[in-house]
Amino acid sequence: MKNTLLTTIVTILMLALNSIVAAQGFEGNTLRLTVDTPNIGNTIAGPFDSVVGSHIEFGLSGSGNGYNVVPVDIDLTSNTINLDYSSGGSFASGTFNGYVFTDLNDTIPDIQGVSIDSTTTLGIDGNRVSFNQNQIFINVASLSYNSSSKIKLYVNFSSALSETSCTGSVLPNLDIYMPSLSYETSLGTQNIWAAFKYSGINPEGKYTWELEDYGVNK
Prior knowledge:
Strand order of the largest sheet: 2-1-9-12-11
Largest sheet: 5 strands, antiparallel
Order of helices and strands: HEEEEEEEEEEEEEEEEEE
């Protein structure tokens, strides 16, 4: 029973901490944007670099390398990419014509999935959105757009905390207090604490805890 209890405690801690890391996502990290056409690698605008926060990260307009860049505001949150167009027309054709987002400093958790939100009004589908562990590609070649066209993508990230990063104690009442936990951020290793309250044994006979509180160590 002791081994089962300890395994459960470690699992609960890792799940909670991984949720904290995943929630960070793009937030506070530097993304690089390029506009590429007629194929990936042929950059006509950028690179542009921006730290993701509570602002419009990229506002595109103008021309480059003989191409006109379609005006668009690009806003990012911790786990979304939002493109908002302000004019009408059609994107040029090509194998690829669109946007490449790159984790510039390799500080963002690995990208594991990208999905298109139902509020998207530009005619993209899953074949036009691709990714690897640190890049996202949006291909808008040959599509028509207008001033109400929008794209919203949800991004899923991996959680890469290891059990060796955890230190703390289990109290006699089985509450758990972790005074020092660490994970990587864009500013380096951030030190946090977390407290879990023991909630008893559920009907399936498993030990349960609730995340009571957590914060950043000063």
